[in-house]
Amino acid sequence: MSYEVKEENVVIQSEVKLAGTVTIPNGESVYPAVLILPGSGNSDRDGSGGGLS
């Protein structure tokens, strides 16, 4: 199943730099949100890393 979405790259700069992508479904509705903040070590944008999948 595919969904129409809008993606925006964002950068927040303070004491540290936090960069990511906001993905928003098209259309008017209320959607749940997920925030993935990886820890130390290798990880990808799907939250996989360190031998975990």
Terminus-to-terminus distance: 21 Å
Q: What fraction of residues sit in β-strands?
A: 25-35%
Secondary structure class reads mainly beta
Overall strand count: 2
Q: What is the radius of gyration computed over CA atoms, rounded to a whole number of angstroms?
A: 14 Å
What is the molecular shape? extended
Neighbour order of strands in the largest sheet: 1-2
Low-confidence stretches: none
Question: What kind of sheet is the major sheet?
Answer: 2 strands, antiparallel
* Residues in helices, as a percent range: under 10%
The number of helical elements comes to 0
Mean pLDDT: 79
Order of SSEs, N→C?
A: EE
Describe the structure in your own words:
It is a single chain. It is built from no helices and 2 strands. The model has no long low-confidence stretch (mean pLDDT 79). It has 53 residues and is mainly beta. Strands 1-2 form a two-stranded antiparallel sheet.
